[in-house]
User: Fold this.
Amino acid sequence: MGSLSESLARVALLGYFAAGTVLGLALLSSWIGLMGTRILAGSRLPSSPSGAHTLRIPPSSVARGLVWLGFAALSLSVAARTAAAGRPPYANQYEFAVAFAWTVLAGYLLLPRERVVRGLTPAVLALALGLLLYASTLPSAITPPVPALQNRLLLGLHVGCALVAYGANAVAFVAALLFLAQRQVRVRSGWVRVLPDARLLDELGYGAVMVSFPMLGATLLLGSWWSSIAWGSYWSWDPKQSATLATWLVYAAYLHTRVNREWQGRGSALLLVLGFCATLLTFAGNLFFGGLHSYAGVTDA
Assistant:
């Protein structure tokens, strides 16, 4: 049994490295495609009814194929890690970072094809690769979870909901960045012509938050339930618990801006950027917050 677990752990590590390599190639391919599109966009383009120059170009089929291949390799890594550990792979910061990258890619691949444009692809890939590179700096050994994490059902549900929310927040963040970039770049520069339409980006960000917002709420509710079981209190103002609440409130404010004309557009996009910064702070908080969530596993040998 021990040799099987060790073999599965090696498969998980190989899948991780294979995913990083393939996704790096996908990023390179998508960036080359984006640069080529910008050069082609220097020619005269038809205008939309509003007078703005637009160019709707689907993402490179090569890059998208590589994303699927990298996602499959990372899925194999996560599945093998789960089987080797005998629990959901969320018990330390390394596992959480890899799973976070997986949900970012899953959120991207689940988008309708007509909403995936080249400006989105390299940004999502850069974010996922950044998470995998961050994971490479952390201890990857499979160790038994701390006593508070030994409830497998709640570990899967609570952290699983958080990961879905984080992945959706990442997609919303990229949409917001592209929205802000489009507003800053002059039309004649050529770059704005390869970016998605502002309305499409706004809808993409809103759709992603409509997934993440209830998932963050579920994360808070399940975390409170688990807290009452593990620590005897539904709410203790633990730093990471409080950071999750603050993140949820930022996205609640964003949803409120959707009905406030003064905040629509740039203001809403800035809130999405702020929300993802809060998401990253919550994600990495157990490295420096301390408190009841200080079990990232970074001090393991």
